[in-house]
From TrEMBL:
Keywords: Cell membrane, Membrane, Transmembrane, Transmembrane helix. InterPro entries: Diverse_Substrate_Transporter, EamA_dom, EmrE-like. Residues 303-320 have a biased composition (Low complexity). Residues 13-138, 149-284 form the EamA domain. Belongs to the EamA transporter family. Residues 291-320 are annotated as: Disordered. It is a multi-pass membrane protein. It comes from Kitasatospora indigofera. This is Membrane protein. The keyword Protein transport does not apply. The lineage of its organism: Bacteria, Bacillati, Actinomycetota, Actinomycetes, Kitasatosporales.
Length: 320
């Protein structure tokens, strides 16, 4: 049943965009370059039992092919988390949040190339605007080369695109319960982190023991709000409102990343780099609107043709 009040429908989804925007700042408060993998093990070690308890019945309904397909998707997801988290600790929170938003541009471009379809000219113009913005932002107005952290987050945006397209086209997971598929993917990624942790800095246990109250508060923010809350709101929202509306609201994430980076983390930019921030926000929003299906028509109107979402089942909380 759809909730009658638009505010009730939209506010939780907007809150997800806000907490996702804060996630890059949270990562920088918890992880250091040599504790990234340990932090990921602890973070998802807390998420998996809760999610698994809720998904236990759906997990029993998965077949061998769905487990294998979810595991393969989880390996890709693990790569996203590693690239994005390592990138976030090596660049500013604002840069990380804005660069990763290029996924919204890369995914339709890649899908169009694979399907051999043409995108609207408005979208192509928006993509060019976003890429120019990234060049200005990461190059500080062209005065320096992008940092290693910027390039890692850019790589994460590319791998995110691969993940979305693979999920959309993998026959083994079509029709799989989204909650169960999410658990399998996160579990596979966590196994990778756990296996890598002995070779990548301090153990998860020693890192967790070294955290003070502030670090634990930020980690719980990542765990409870950026992962569990975000996922369950998405599951509710696609039933209570339209996927297009959810996409538009969640698309404000880079705006919130910039807000948190500038106001809380104290990120500062030159004039050209600040112009890059504006171009990225404008370009990603313009591009998303250029390909987002029109809202449902009023009674008596003819419905506009609607484009099927690339990968609705198994949609995951944004890695950060």
């Amino acid at each position: 049943m759809r909730t009658s009040s638009p505010i009730v429908r939209d506010l939780p989804v907007l809150l997800v965009a806000v907490v996702w925007g804060s996630s890059f700042l949270a990562v920088k408060q918890v992880a250091e370059p040599d504790t990234v993998i340990a932090m990921l093990v602890v973070r998802f070690g807390l998420v998996l039992p809760v999610l698994g308890l809720v998904a236990r019945r759906a997990l029993r309904g998965l077949g061998p092919r769905e487990w294998l397909g979810g595991g393969l998707l989880g390996l890709i997801l693990g790569g996203i988390f590693l690239l994005e988290t390592y990138g976030a600790v090596h660049t500013s929170a604002t840069n990380a949040g804005l660069v990763i938003s290029l996924t919204m541009i890369f995914t339709p471009l890649a899908e169009s190339a694979v399907a051999r379809t043409r995108l609207p000219r408005a979208f192509l113009a928006a993509a060019a605007l976003s890429l120019l913005g990234v060049a200005l932002l990461t190059g500080d107005g062209g005065l320096r080369a992008p940092s290693g952290g910027d390039l890692l987050v850019l790589g994460a945006a590319v791998v995110r695109t691969v993940h979305v397209l693979t999920m959309a086209r993998m026959k083994a997971v079509r029709g799989a319960d989204s909650l169960a598929l999410t658990w399998v993917q996160l579990a596979a990624a966590t196994v990778v982190f756990a296996l890598a942790s002995p070779f990548a800095g301090p153990s998860p246990w020693s890192v967790a023991a070294s955290w003070g109250p502030a670090q634990w508060a930020w980690l719980l923010h990542l765990t409870v709000f950026c992962t569990l809350f975000a996922f369950f709101v998405q599951m509710w929202a696609v039933r209570a409102t339209s996927p297009s509306r959810v996409s538009l609201l969640l698309g404000t994430e880079p705006l919130w990343a910039a807000v948190f980076g500038i106001t809380v983390a104290g990120d500062r930019f030159g004039v050209l780099a600040l112009g890059g921030v504006v171009l990225i926000l404008a370009g990603t929003e313009w591009g998303r609107r250029a390909i987002t299906p029109a809202p449902a028509p009023a009674p008596g109107q003819q419905p506009a043709p609607e484009q099927e979402p690339a990968a609705e089942a198994g949609q995951l909380p944004q890695p950060a």
